[in-house]
Amino acid sequence: MDVINAKLRESSYRLTGQRKAVLNVMLENKGRHLSAEEVLWEARKISPNIGIATVYRTLEKLASLEVLYKSMFEGNKYRYELAEDEKHHHHHVLCLACGLISEVSGDLLHELESDLDEQGYKIIDHELKFYGYCPACNKKK
User: Fold this and answer.
1) How far apart are CA 53 and CA 40, in angstroms?
2) Mean per-residue pLDDT, 21-37
3) Which CATH number characterizes residue 49's domain?
4) Range of the domain at 120
5) In Å, how far are 17, 44, 91, 97, 107 from 129, measured between CA atoms?
6) What is the average per-residue pLDDT within 22-38?
7) Which of helix, strand or coil describes residue 137?
8) pLDDT tens digits, residue range 59-109?
9) Chosen domain end from 63, 82, 101
10) Quick one: 65 and 112 in the same domain?
11) Calpha distance 104→22 (Å, rounded)
12) pLDDT at site 5
């Protein structure tokens, strides 16, 4: 939380009650990949009058401050997750049956990124998604 507070102070971003509700939802769901709508549902338990536009603006601002990671998933829908202190190099497995999003640890593209660097490219970040069936859904098939 200290890192988050420092980022907010550096940017002079004022944490209003509704913005704090959005941040609290993300803090309480560490490791989960939430859509703006899911954040809205949870934030309304804290701040009943919060609107979807406020949620979107807050999520986008927190992502721009690198407090959250923003990734596009199924149906061109963005999902947000709390940023960790390390650089964002993990990958995702999406279950085609139940929609579970799991993380794959390890930087699987490090060698490719190094090769591109040698060719003169400046790679800022990368993202890789696998699509399949989670262990529970795979057993049902």
Assistant:
1) 10
2) 94
3) 1.10.10.10
4) 91-140
5) 35, 31, 6, 16, 13
6) 94
7) helix
8) 999 999 989 989 888 777 899 999 875 555 668 888 899 988 888 877 778
9) 82
10) no
11) 26
12) 83
User: Cα–Cα distance between 12 and 96 in angstroms, integer?
Assistant: 41
Amino acid 92 reads H
137, 98 contact by CB (below 8 A) = yes
From residue 2, give the alpha-carbon distance in Å to each of 56, 67, 108, 115: 24, 11, 30, 36
Number of domains the chain is built from: 2
Same structural domain, 7 and 72: yes
Q: Work out the average pLDDT over 116-138.
A: 88
Same domain, 29 and 97: no
Are the beta carbons of 42 and 25 closer than 8 angstroms? yes
| CA 43 remoteness from chain centre | 16
Report the predicted TM-score, pTM, of the whole model to 2 decimal places.
Answer: 0.75
Same domain for 18 and 60? yes
Token couple for 73: 């998933």
